[in-house]
Design goal:
By secondary structure, the protein is α+β, with helices and mostly antiparallel strands. It has helices at residues 8-38, 42-69, 107-111, 133-153, and strands spanning 3-4, 71-74, 78-83, 89-94, 98-104, 114-121, 125-132. A hairpin with a 3-residue loop joins strand 6 and strand 7.
């Protein structure tokens, strides 16, 4: 059975988009200052503001879509991550290839009582964006137990 992320992740994504917007505003402000102090072209500031609005706007608009179609599932054979409807992406990470499971929690996730679960293989790292802390601990234990059993069977 596929599991959806908790609803609090939408707030984390919104805050991240607004922080990104603040960074774009600071870049535009620095370019405005450079325009006044050193006569840099004004269109640099306009481009920074335009890119910032597009970046933040697209992230905010896509949050409901991203939330509606992001799922994960743990089976005895693999960890399955699925996202998207128009551009559907399904990743199956074989349990036997998993080397480590890491839990991470930055200030935005901590504020919503969430943790990200990072599943590491030799080649790459896959992430479950944010789950409740108790669920994250259970997922880590479950995945590592399945990985240990898979290594013992081999």
């Amino acid at each position: 059975m596929q599991t959806q992320l908790p609803v609090q992740i939408k707030r984390v994504w919104r805050l991240r988009a607004l922080i990104d917007g603040g960074i774009w505003v600071n870049v535009a402000g620095a370019l405005w200052l450079a325009n006044h102090l050193w006569a840099w072209p004004w269109w640099l500031m306009a481009i920074a503001l335009g890119l910032g609005v597009i970046h933040v706007g697209s992230h905010l608009v896509l949050i409901p879509y991203r939330y509606a179609f992001w799922r994960y599932q743990i089976t005895p054979d693999d960890v399955v991550l699925q996202s998207g409807f128009i551009f559907r992406k399904t990743e199956a990470i074989p349990i036997a290839r998993i080397q480590n499971v890491t839990l991470e929690q930055g200030p935005l996730l901590r504020g919503q009582h969430l943790q990200s679960v990072k599943v590491q293989t030799a080649a790459t790292t896959h992430e479950i964006a944010g789950v409740e802390v108790s669920v994250a601990d259970a997922l880590r234990e479950q995945i590592m137990q399945l990985a240990k059993e898979a290594r013992d069977d081999a």
